Fold Tryptophan 2-monooxygenase.
Amino acid sequence: MRTVVIGGGAAGIAAARTLHDAAHDVLLVEASDRLGGRAHSLSIDALLSREGSKAEANPFPAGPNVDAGCGWLHSAQRNPWTAIAELSGFSVDRSDANWRTQWRNLSFSPEEEASSSTAYQEWNARALAAVDGPDRALSEFVGANDPWRPRIDAISGYANGANLSQVSLHDWAAYENAASDDNWTVRQGYGTLVTSHAAGLPIRLSTPVTRIDHGGRRIRLDTPSGTIDADHVIVCVPTTVLARSQIRFDPPLPNKHAAAADLPLGLADKVFLHVDRPEWPANAHLVGNPYAACTASHRLSPFGWPIIESFFGGDCAEMLEDGDAAAFAIDELVALLGSDWRRRFTPFAATRWRHVPWIGGSYSHARIGCVGQRAVLAEPVDGRIFFAGEACHREDFSTAHGAYETGVAAARAIIGGDAVIA
């Protein structure tokens, strides 16, 4: 009995690994020329060399990486990737993310921070108190004239990849009630960790599946390099791929395409800057403008390295995808640190996830009134076609560990085990 796993991200790798380790015949096919999907680590050495940066003389460790995609082990103590990292010899950094701390209180006084925190907690409480009622947009729980509304909107952009008006209360609450505040990092890169879990698996890269014919006794998968036969299929692709019908089903499965469309990928992008002589401690943090909805969350010197990772989300990221996000990030930092700093920043990488083929975004959120579409998307078809990925998880969507759990659950359903997602 052969299973083909479509998609080499966290879910697909987890599914294929589970099947392979149970001695099942499995093949993992990936449309792009690399594994990992939205878990993608970049070599700093290669990036700086490509840009011709003078940063090569700085004290980086051998083979340092930054994460273009997911970078945080969210809910780390129950996150399965944490245990995989530790068993595989990766270094897990348990340092505080410092998201609530403005380095040296620059343009964000302790009094302002306290006021902002209170406003966020009150908004959070109002939203959670309404969860038993009809679904609504998160924007309905903060006043239009609240001075901290833009900051709450910016936080929604980071967390959901979309601003408050686009995010379902019921969907957000499911995640919020399950998540914990332990957010850790992997020194070698989250993407490196995810792809390392695929070691030894049968894999075909650059093999997009364009049609799944499940009308006969065996399932036939159309690819540019020929047809692949299978007894079972696990579809582990981003919702954008299904919503755009990049994979067609024959007979059609319109409910799958509709569910994917109701679970769109929001957007989160990053800019990486080299810093000449940073003056802050490792893992410090700055928010660019606490009174603006379009602002970056700046991670200063992760792991003590002389770099800044500037993070944009939601409408702000959408606006900057076709603009100069690096210039925006530098302008924000110079406004906080002073004009002398401008010459000390050198951009060396920026992401544009909306434009990545076969991905087209960052992580899913449910449209208003559409939280039930996660279960529709995850439902198997005829006991032969299974679906996995972060968008299929009821609580841990938008995360690599949610993707992992759905991939394992789909594989276990084929093996004959328990397919219930924890």
